[in-house]
Amino acid sequence: MSVNFKSIARRDPRDIMATPKHYAMVVSNGATDIDQLSQLISDGSTVTQADVYAVIIRLVNTIQNELSQGRTVRLGKLGSFNLSVNSEGVDTPDKVTPSLIKRTKIRYRPSLELNNMLKTLRFSKKSD
């Protein structure tokens, strides 16, 4: 199976007069929600869909709790999650305060195994 992509034209925001260039963009082949995901996992195991669903919900809640305590959450072959912040810069360390933090993000870093999967993907251009 291959991943579909299409061509999309984009202008350089630094030079709006320049001729647009064309780039590849992945075309979604649908989405899998938590109900479908729990069913797919259940179909491949002896665990019921309801049990899988409950574990996924608990996993999300636990990840949120661990992140809110400043911990990195490592999920083996899935990857890891940690917090990152953007803040204003100041001249001295003693002037760094929580009020300087402007945005908090959750960073996801895929595992080596997931990153290696990207190397084996095949692509097909979708006709317009």
Q: What characteristics describe this protein?
A:
128 residues, alpha+beta, three-stranded mixed beta sheet, three-stranded antiparallel beta sheet, 29% helix
Summarize the structure in words.
The chain has 128 residues and is an alpha+beta fold. The protein has a domain at 75-119. Helices cover 29% and strands 30% of the residues. A three-stranded mixed β-sheet has the order 2-1-6, with no helix packed on it. The longest helix has 20 residues, at 49-68. The radius of gyration is 21 Å and the shape is flat. The chain starts with a strand and ends with a strand. The mean pLDDT is 94.
Structural topology:
Blueprint: E1 3-10, E2 21-26, H1 34-43, H2 49-68, E3 73-74, E4 79-87, E5 101-110, H3 112-118, E6 123-125
Parallel strand pairs: 1-6
Antiparallel strand pairs: 1-2, 3-4, 4-5
Helix pairs in contact: 1-2
Q: TL;DR?
A:
By secondary structure, the chain is of the alpha+beta class. The chain has helices at residues 34-43, 49-68, 112-118, and strands spanning 3-10, 21-26, 73-74, 79-87, 101-110, 123-125.
Mass-distribution shape: flat
Poorly predicted parts: none
Give a count of the beta strands, DSSP E runs of length 2 or more: 6
For the sheet with most strands, the description reads: 3 strands, mixed
Strand content: 25-35%
Mean pLDDT: 94
> For the largest beta sheet, what order do the strands appear in spatially?
2-1-6
Number of helices: 3
Distance between the termini: 20 Å
Order of helices and strands: EEHHEEEHE
Q: What is the share of helical residues?
A: 25-40%
* Rg (C-alpha, Å): 21 Å
Structural class assignment: alpha+beta
